[in-house]
Specification:
This protein is an alpha/beta fold. It contains seven helices and ten strands. The longest helix is centred in the N-terminal third of the chain and has 13 residues, at 24-36. The chain is globular and about 50 Å long. The two termini are 24 Å apart.
Length: 239
């Protein structure tokens, strides 16, 4: 059973009320956004499907932005709010419970991040909360692409999305219909010899040459790679 909390260097994630727990790939997404997308000092950031609030908190640690987070599950949204309030940055973090399809803010965002549910054809389990967290029953590829295309600032805004490779290709097709194109494509492997298991992609409205990167989490002996440690050293308690 996953721990009921995950302690980072500057904040704590309580996660017993959320169907989506803290994952290594989720932490990687937050770390990559912190490293590559905060230099331009985005002022308004949106986290779609925040779950425990992990991505919003990682970004809050490394920026001065105001961050909105939306979460469809009531219990998870309450827990994200509690995690926000217990963090050093509660005044800059706001969570709204509801679906992204009905989310109608008065502003557009400089940066959008999302670690969305992705199982499509797999048989859902008995837990409704976990199904919402990991199956795209409530957040399809077209719906997420439309939300990003609608809520992101035109021209200057970018969005960071995490999916497995097949699902990322399906999302990319939908994103292109919204005028969104890959800028950075990070292929993630657990080990050098392993198959890619996640793609982390930065999208923007300007089509250009794509920068492809490879990221390996662990060495053959099971230890974290230097690249991984450098990315997560400001966040992980024991790095």
């Amino acid at each position: 059973m996953p721990n009921s909390y995950f302690q980072f260097k500057e904040f704590r994630i309580d996660q017993d009320q959320s169907g989506m727990k803290v994952t290594t790939e989720g932490c990687l997404l937050g770390a990559l956004v912190a490293k590559w997308s905060l230099q331009n000092q985005p002022e308004k950031i949106l986290d779609i499907g925040t779950g425990t609030g992990l991505l919003a908190l990682m970004i809050a640690q490394k920026s001065s932005a105001n961050i909105d987070a939306i979460e469809i599950d009531k219990a998870a949204a309450r827990q994200a709010e509690n995690n926000f309030q217990d963090s050093p940055w509660p005044e800059r973090l706001n969570v709204q419970q509801g679906s992204i399809q009905s989310f109608t803010p008065s502003k557009r965002y400089d940066l959008i991040v999302s670690n969305p549910p992705f199982f499509k054809d797999n048989q859902p389990g008995k837990s409704t909360q976990k199904n919402q967290a990991i199956h795209n029953l409530k957040l399809s590829f077209p719906d997420l692409a439309l939300a990003v295309g609608t809520l992101l600032k035109s021209e200057t805004g970018t969005a960071w999305i995490l999916y497995p490779p097949y699902e990322m290709e399906e999302f990319r097709k939908q994103a292109s219909k919204q005028g969104l194109f890959p800028i950075e494509v990070v292929t993630v492997r657990n080990k050098e010899s392993g198959s890619p298991f996640r793609k982390i992609v930065q999208f923007g409205f300007n089509e250009s040459e794509i920068n492809h990167r490879q990221l390996v989490i662990r060495n053959l002996d099971g230890s974290y790679t230097t690249t991984f440690k450098v990315l997560l050293q400001d966040f992980y308690l024991h790095l």
